Amino acid sequence: MFKGWLLTKENDEFKCELTEIDEKDLPEGEVTIDVAHSTINYKDGLAITNSGMIVREWPMVPGIDLAGTVSESSSPDFKAGDTVVVNGWGLSETHWGGLAEKARVPAHMPVKLPDAFTTEQAMAVGTAGYTAMLCVLALEDQGVKPGDGPVIVTGAAGGVGSIAVAILGKLGYEVHASTGRPEEEGYLKGLGAAAIVDRNTLSEKGKPLQRETWAGAVDTVGSHTLANVIAQTKKGGTVTCVGLAQGPDLPVTVMPFILRSVKLVGCESVTAPQALRQECWDRLATDLDAGKLAEMSKTVGMGDVEGVARDILAGKVRGRVVVDING
Question: Residue ranges per domain, the chain?
Fold first, then answer.
């Protein structure tokens, strides 16, 4: 038996309980992991509070991220004692996730954790940081360089945004952080932002072409915010898109694309191949300052999970929340 959060639904009655789970009930997979740390992301908040259609199979252990030590493996790629991290791949949706003391996953899911990270630091990074790194790689792939001009990060006080600001700042980019929380100015500038942009200047319908401002962008918001960022992007610039906090719509014209050669690149993190994941984690080990990671994260115990899940949906959480599975 092991301790974990378990979500159940019977006859439309939803329950979220911290309980004892039988190891024989773990899902199939080649790699069994003793989980040390997990996280609480926005998607976890939806699942834990039954606020969105996240869970597709019941019962479900929530948690889209986990880090820990391999205890058993029938895969040649992993052995007992390996420290690994797992992000996405349907955890908390169709496969049991990380908010439990044990997990079992198929061998294509884990990535070996670079020595630079502890499991606690890995979960301070989590899916949010790994997704931010995907965006940075995409900007680099499209030739966006620090000398090309400012880069904007929307939703900058959130998990993806915070880590994107920190990485881009360390790499030498002039980062402008868009947020609706002016009280976070000191926090964001401490991470590496050169300037703060009031999100209200981007969140309403704007002209299809606006003053060229951004060499690149990391957008976590979508809707009018993304449309305005695209309309303000310089000729040949690149906008990466990873979120829909404002909405899934994109009220934009073709004009920025055909008149300025602006590129819009979607970055999908859930099923990205293992090699790309490993590249992201290896780059995170060198391009993300450990001190700034500590500034943007806090660690809670298993008993705090429900409360934090509600807070993250209410917009009361900044940066990253790590869960100590044994705490």
Answer: 2-113+296-324, 125-266
What is the C-alpha to C-alpha distance for residues 175 and 324, in angstroms, rounded to an integer? Answer: 32
- What proportion of the chain, given as a percentage, has pLDDT over 90? 91
pTM above 0.70, yes or no: yes
CB 316 within 8 A of CB 295: no
Given this model, what pLDDT does residue 159 score?
Answer: 87
Q: Which CATH class is domain 125-266?
A: alpha beta
Provide the sign of the torsion angle of the four alpha carbons 159, 208, 268, 311, taken in this order: positive
Q: Is 261 helix (H, G, I), strand (E, B) or coil?
A: coil
Question: What kind of architecture, by CATH, is found in domain 2-113+296-324?
Answer: Alpha-Beta Complex (3.90)
Helices 274-287 and 159-170 pack at an angle, to 10 degrees, of: 60
CB 63 within 8 A of CB 140: no
Q: Which residue has the tokens 């680099």?
A: 140
- Four-CA torsion 16, 22, 27, 30, nearest 10 degrees: 140
Distance separating alpha carbons of residues 74 and 106, to the nearest angstrom: 10
- Contact present, 124 and 322 (Cβ < 8 Å): yes
- Mean pLDDT of all residues in 162-166: 95
Closest C-alpha among 82, 87, 95, 75 to residue 33:
82
Q: Does the pLDDT of residue 231 top 90, yes or no?
A: yes
Per-residue pLDDT reduced to its tens digit, 83-115: 999 999 999 999 999 999 999 999 999 999 999
Q: In 3D, which of 87, 3, 11, 16 has the Cα closest to residue 47?
A: 16
pLDDT in tens, 29-54: 999 999 999 999 989 999 999 998 89
Exposure class string for 282-297: b at 16+ Cβ within 10 A, else e: ebbbeebeeebbeebb
Distance CA 169, CA 320 (A): 18
Answer for the pair 214, 232: CB distance below 8 angstroms, yes or no. yes
Mean pLDDT of the chain: 95
DSSP letter assigned to residue 221? S
Contact between residue 262 and residue 237 where contact means Cβ atoms under 8 Å apart = yes
